Amino acid sequence: MRRSCDEHRRAALLGETSGESHQQVCHSCQTASNADRDLAAALRSLAAEHPAPATLRAAVLQRAREIDAPALRLPSWRWLLALTVVAAAVFVLLTWRSLAPTSRDRREDTELVAFLSKDHFKYRHRADRAEISNGDPAELERWFAEKLELAISVPKLAGTRPVGARRCNLLGRWAALVFLQTEAREVLSLFVYPPRELEPPGTVDLEVGGLHARLLQTQGLDMAFWQRSGLTYALVGRIPQLHHE
Amino acid sequence: MLFRRKEHAKREQAAPAVPETLEEALATYLDALYATARMLTGEAAAAEDLVQETAEAACHGWKQLRDRGAYKSWLLRIMRNTFLNEQRARQRRPRLIDVDIDADLTDSELAATTTRVATVLPGSLDRALASVLLEYREALWLVEVEGLSVTEAAKAIGVPKGTVASRLFRGRRQVREALLRGRQA
Predict the structure, then answer these.
(1) Which residues have CB under 8 Å from A178's CB, separation 6+?
(2) CB within 8 A of B49, min separation 6: which ones?
């Protein structure tokens, strides 16, 4: 009887039979079925007790909207400027082809971009993840000088203000991460790290806050890279000026 | 759910329309992802991180997804892989043990745990579930809570159907045993 029950159970678990006919004549299996039903109901109740937090939902859906949306939504009067920039980029690409990064550099670029994207997404909606919550650039600069011995300079970017910062581990090395809030209350992540052997990735040159930067747009995110005083700066998020928000 | 129940079939029929965009898919399944992440990690903050990393990975891979009807199991598979990669990175990977179905609890023990589950104290089921081996807990969760069929769960976990069935069976048993121990303690 027991062996027969086990076979019925296995077949029912695999969806090969409904098992109902056997259950009607087997008290043992009926008891087990009732116990399973109660356990499943209790587990579903447990799951329903913890819906996703609203902040998490907002952050995840915002990220998905960025992926679903077109990469750039430039207003019509800026198309001419955009075309000029693209033409310049093509020129630079053709001229500097011999200086193109090696495959190893490109692989490291890809890892770097994936890391920046991941950490931006991970931290941007969690104010409690900042190790220091302060809007004063000078305070943040002092904090990083003390914690990382890194003399960063928090840039003044139009339409943004610093709200906090933390340290992060960038591919095995410490880096500074400053959170900048836009007027639309979106968060941009500014990573600052000592220069690596590879060139900052980027496809188009642009000006960010008066700085010459290289722009990379990937997976709905803008990434602007520039170098200053021996450090590399990477601004990650939806840069308002590029989206005319 | 020792036997495939009518309620399960009804749940499948009442499934929402297939999401057309990633945003719709995540909006539809976010609660399920978060609950599953809590089950895997055992804590709220880690669960939030896991959901975010899962969503980010989904953002990178969704354009390659051809079967848009399989969003849920696809997202759960990403979550599982992300979680295990993190575990491997920390070199704390739980043991993998696959077993065959064997004898269940006795009828009297079953009856005792049935009563216990019906009048479960807040937190005790949570603790019982947390004491179950990850592989069993995961199979139990995907099938019983998320409503995946054994075949879908097998695809999400990346093991044969029979293995899922065994883990499901063992998972139920371990939860019952943990609840029984909790009552006797």
Answers:
(1) A140, A152, A154, A162, A164, A165, A189, A190, A192
(2) A122
Residues of B whose CB is below 8 A from A65? 23
- Which of A9, A44, A53 has its CB closest to that of B2? A9
Count the neighbouring beta carbons within 10 Å of the beta carbon of residue B154.
22
**CA neighbor of B127 nearest in space, from B142, B112, B113, B137:** B137
CB B173 within 8 A of CB B101: no
| Longest alpha-carbon distance in chain A | 83
- Chain B nearest-CA residue for A43: B145
CB A201 within 8 A of CB A109: yes
CA B30 to CA A119: how far, in whole Å?
A: 20
Cβ contact, residue pair A67, B62, below 8 Å: yes
Closest CB to B1: pick one of A6, A36, A53: A36
Return the top range by mean pLDDT from A93-107, B103-117, B140-154.
B140-154
> Using alpha carbons only, how large is chain A's radius of gyration in Å?
27
Question: What single-letter DSSP state applies at residue A221?
Answer: E
pLDDT confidence band for B4 (50 / 70 / 90): very low
DSSP H helix total and E strand total for chain A: 8, 7
Mean pLDDT over A34-43 rounds to 87
Q: What band does A78 get if pLDDT is binned at 50, 70 and 90?
A: low
